[in-house]
Amino acid sequence: MRQTFIVTYDVCDPKRLRKVFRLMKGYGDHLQLSVFRCDLDLRTLHELRGRLGDVIHDGEDQVLFVDVGPSDGRAATSIRAIGKAYEPPPGIALVV
Fold it and tell me: Of 6, 22, 28, 77, which one's alpha carbon is 20 to 30 angstroms from that of 86?
């Protein structure tokens, strides 16, 4: 089962910041500056955490994972916006 996560990061070094951004683009939808919405199964979640762990510096950088719930349940309606409307990504099948 896929869970929706809001992943946000604070990376001190510009070079590492770019690496984290490029990495995250492969796992989710870019919402704002250092914020992504990711629909992940357990294997992909562990893969992403491992890959991020290889890039960031533990004492300087931080990555937060907020579990919003099942992708096909509560997560579909849990993000609310003030100002510009939030538009969830279309539910398209991705064949890898």
Answer: 22
Given a contact cutoff of 8 angstroms between Cβ atoms, the answer to whether 36 and 30 are in contact is: yes
Give the C-alpha separation, 24 to 18, whole Å: 10
Tell me the domain boundaries of the chain: 3-77
Is the whole model's pTM more than 0.85, yes or no? no
Instruction: Label residue 37 left, alpha or beta by phi (over 0 means left) and psi (-120 to 50 means alpha).
Output: beta
Neighbours of 70 (CB within 10 A): 14
Specify the fold of 3-77: Alpha-Beta Plaits (3.30.70)
